[in-house]
Amino acid sequence: MRLATIRTTGGLRAARLEGDELVLLEAHDVGELLSSYDLAAVKSESGPVISAEGVDYATLVPRPPHVFCVGLNYRDHIQEMGRDLPTFPTLFAKFSSCLIGAHDDIVLPSISEKVDWEIELGIVIGSQARRVPPERAMEAIAGFTVVNDI
């Protein structure tokens, strides 16, 4: 199932992608959908249908409680930057206010002189998870998304 949060004239709306159309869901966004709805029921939820062409996509989960990132995890990029390979994962956080939609403009501070970007795999955790053993980790993952990390 492919989900999106889109901007409509009435505000944000969660949607389910079916081919080249979007089915508008009751939830305001995918974050609300994950916290308040039964995902199995979302597969069959009906609603207004619109064309996916030209839709204004918002960030998938507009107000996530946490955004954790793993840095220096791609060997070729580390080497092209002239950095040493890390011994342990490099973790850092981002604020939800830095998240934008798929086609939104990226606004750089005027003092930015050197900007680096990377396409990343975003993992959306859909349920509360703590000390989850590796063999059960997929149970907490609601899905994946593409992230352009600037």
Sheet with most strands: strand arrangement: 4-3-2-1-5
- Main β sheet profile: 5 strands, antiparallel
Total helices: the number is 3
Shape: globular
Number of strands: 9
The helix fraction, in percent, is 10-25%
N- to C-terminal separation?
Answer: 28 Å
Radius of gyration using CA atoms only:
18 Å
Q: Could you report the average pLDDT, rounded to the nearest whole number?
A: 92
| Structural class designation | mainly beta
State the main characteristics:
single chain; 150 residues; mainly beta; five-stranded antiparallel beta sheet; two-stranded antiparallel ribbon; 3 helices; 9 strands; 34% strand; globular
Q: Can you offer a commentary on this structure?
A:
The protein is built from three helices and nine strands; from the N terminus they run E-E-E-H-H-E-E-E-H-E-E-E. Strand 2 and strand 3 form a beta hairpin. The protein has a five-stranded antiparallel beta sheet, covered by helices on one side. The protein has a two-stranded antiparallel ribbon with strand order 6-7. It has a two-stranded antiparallel sheet with strand order 8-9. The relative contact order is 0.15. Helices cover 11% and strands 34% of the residues. It is mainly beta.
